[in-house]
Amino acid sequence: MSGAQAAGEQTGDAGTLGLDPALLAILACPDTHHSPLTVDVDASELVCPTCSRAFPVRDGIPVLLLDEARQRPA
Ligand SMILES: [Zn+2]
């Protein structure tokens, strides 16, 4: 961390699953709607609010593959 960003106090890794917030900001569902994903900290997954798919994060790497996604109950 080179400490480029000091404005506003965010809660470190909580809510990001250890992922870079800049990366999270550009992650999108691989389905055709390309909705921005939200983080489910409890499940350690990235969730698409549009199709309710959940994508696993393995070793700090989001697996954004439809084949790997889990369909969550609405
Ligand atoms: Zn989706």
General description of the model:
This protein has a domain at 21-71: N-terminal domain of TfIIb. Helix content is 8%, strand content 22%. The protein contains one helix and five strands; from the N terminus they run αβββββ. The chain has one helix at 21-26, and strands spanning 38-40, 45-47, 53-58, 61-62, 70-71. Strands 1, 2, 3, 4 and 5 form a five-stranded antiparallel β-sheet that branches. It is globular, with a radius of gyration of 13 Å. Residues 29, 31, 33, 35, 48, 50-51, 53 line the site of zinc ion.
Please, what is the average pLDDT?
A: 86
Helical stretch tally: 1
Shape call: globular
Quickly name the level 1 CATH class of the domain at 21-71. Mainly Beta
Which regions contain 5 or more consecutive residues with pLDDT less than 50?
Answer: none
Percent strand equals 15-25%
Q: How would you summarize what this structure contains?
A:
The protein has 74 residues and is mainly beta. Helices cover 8% and strands 22% of the residues.
Features:
74 residues, mainly beta, N-terminal domain of TfIIb, globular, binds zinc ion
Please write out the topology:
Elements: H1 21-26, E1 38-40, E2 45-47, E3 53-58, E4 61-62, E5 70-71
Antiparallel strand pairs: 1-2, 2-3, 3-4, 3-5
This protein binds zinc ion (ZN).
Residues 29, 31, 33, 35, 48, 50-51, 53 line the site of zinc ion.
